[in-house]
Write a structure and sequence with these properties.
Blueprint lengths: L1 H4 E6 L3 H9 L3 H21 L6 H9 L6 E3 L2 E6 L6 E7 L2 E6 L6 E6 L5 E7 L5 E7 L2 E6 L4 E6 L5 E6 L7 E3 L4 E4 L4 E5 L6 E6 L1 E2 L2 E2 L3 E7 L2 E6 L4 E6 L5 E6 L14 E7 L4 E6 L4 E5 L2 H4 L1
Parallel strand pairs: 2-21
Antiparallel strand pairs: 1-7, 3-24, 4-5, 5-6, 6-7, 8-9, 9-10, 10-11, 12-13, 13-14, 14-15, 16-17, 18-19, 19-20, 20-21, 22-23, 23-24
């Protein structure tokens, strides 16, 4: 099972060497999955008529004076691989653990926060589209998109130890100390047993009666769930008990150069020990530390 999912492991390579290695791939299979991935993204972009735009959601939230608004300002900037299609991000002990997506390009990475150096990289089988990522004890849990498979790795070695199946699309995932919290692109957040992924409860997310959907990457911080809202520059801050949006963060000023409309914010990580909040996005060149003391005291 392990050898069929994890194709290759690259350890202790500097950034430049790793980039060269990633260019060396076998055309057979890779090209097929890349074409399929492009078709899927074309379908998503042009058929999501109900997707919330940044402007419409920002306008709605700005009209509710009871919901605090924060314009994110960078207090520190770190390098990030601009080829990484970031789908999940988590911080621990000076390192970022990152899940990247796209068929034929998905990976799990351990990254030095300060330098951006990729310390350890595991490429995932082409059939999987990597999604959200979280840490539970000594285990890294990586979701996949439509395969409905979770990949469980040992945090220190990034060795695949187990796979679990669940009946939802995989988007974002975080851990509140007792339960996994997962998103599937809708307005629902599900609380799952971290051992067997059994459902504990469902939490609809709303703001003043308006459902907030397209919830993507997640991070649990002091009783609140921070969620990237797909195809927007907004991070919704959600009460983990009742699902109400209690604040929102606009990160539109952080990354000016974005080559496609898919290069959206996606990646939230929290350093609980030092009270630091990090954000990045798909194919962004930087990870940003932002300070929001009102929210994370």
């Amino acid at each position: 099972m392990m050898s069929s999912v994890v194709k290759t492991s690259v350890q202790n390579k500097n950034y430049a060497t790793m980039m060269k290695d990633m260019k060396k791939f076998t055309i057979t299979g890779k090209i097929t999955w890349r074409i399929l991935g492009a078709v899927v993204w074309f379908f998503l972009i042009f058929t999501k008529a109900d997707a919330q735009s940044y402007d419409s959601l920002a306008l709605y939230l700005s009209q509710n004076e009871d919901i605090p608004y924060y314009l994110a300002q960078a207090i520190a900037i770190y390098p990030h691989d601009p080829r990484a299609f970031t789908e999940g991000l988590v911080y621990e002990n000076g390192f970022l653990y990152e899940s990247t997506g796209l068929h034929g390009e998905s990976s799990l990475r351990k990254v030095n926060l300060s330098t951006g150096e990729i310390i350890h990289l595991v490429e995932i089988e082409d059939q999987y589209f990597g999604e959200g990522l979280t840490i539970v004890g000594s285990t890294l849990i990586q979701l996949t998109w439509k395969s409905r498979v979770a990949l469980l790795y040992h945090k220190d070695t990034l060795e695949l130890e187990k796979t679990l199946y669940y009946p939802y699309e995989g988007w974002g995932v975080t851990y509140d100390g007792s339960h996994l919290i997962v998103s599937d692109g809708s307005n629902l957040l599900r609380f799952l047993n971290p051992v067997d992924f059994s459902l504990i409860r469902e939490l609809p997310v709303s703001s003043g009666g308006k459902l907030i959907d397209q919830l993507n990457e997640l991070e649990y911080i002091n009783g609140k769930i921070y969620a990237n809202v797909w195809h927007t520059d907004i991070i919704a801050i959600i009460d983990s008990q009742d699902g109400e949006v209690v604040g929102w963060i606009d990160v539109s000023q952080l990354e000016e150069k974005r080559n496609t409309r898919e290069d959206v914010p996606n990646g939230i990580a929290y350093d609980a020990e030092n009270n630091r909040l990090f954000v990045t996005g798909k194919r962004w060149s930087h990870v940003y530390e932002i300070q929001l003391p009102e929210l994370i005291k």
